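[audit] Reproducing an earlier prediction to check determinism. Same input, same settings, fresh worker. If the C-alpha cells differ from the archived copy the diff job will pick it up downstream; this log only records the rerun itself.
[audit] input (186 residues):
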Amino acid sequence: MGYVNAIPDDIRSVQFAFCKHSKGRRLVTCAFLACMATILQAAGGFLPGIGYMISPFATLPILIGAMFALRMGVLSYSLTTLLLLILVPSELFIFPFTTGLLGIGIGAAFSLFNKKSSIIVTGASFLTVGIMSLLYLFHYPVLGPVLSGSFSFRASVGIFLFSFFYSWIWVEIGLFFFIKLKSIFA
C-alpha cells in the first residue's frame, strides 16, 4: 500500500451505514470492542513474556471502533480504561497514553482526512504526545531506562520517527481489518 494513496471510498459509506443502526446494536458493538481491547491489553500483566507481544494489539479494537464512528471509538477507549482500572491497574498508564491513544488518533484521522499520509502523521502525532507525556510529564519510564526524565530533542525526534513507522503499520492493519469486518458491522 502506498503512503500517499487515498483511502477507499467505501469507508465513508460504511461509516454512514453504521450510524443508521439502532443505538442498542452500536452500544453492544462498543462494549464488545472495549472488552477485546481490555483482554488484549491485560495480557501483558497476566502472561509475562508472551503477553507483552499480545498487548500492542489492543490498538485494533479501539481503531476499528473509531473508524466506524468516532463516538464509538472514544466510548470504547473510555470503557477499556475503566475496565483496566478494575482488572489490571498496572496497565493503566500504558493504555490511555499509547495503545488506546494511537487507536483514537488514527480512527479520528480516518473521519477527517482522505490521504493516508495525513492519517499516518495524525496517528504518529497522537502517539508521540502520549509517549512524551508519560516520559516528561509523569516521569513514567515507558521506554525503560534508555531515556532519562529530562527533555531531549534527539530523543523526541526518535520517538516521532518510531511513532510514524508504528502508525503506518497500524493504518495498514486497520484498513485490512476494516475491509474484512465491514460486512459484519455495517
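[audit] rerun output stored. Observation attached for the diff report: Residues 153-185 form the longest helix (33 residues).
[audit] end
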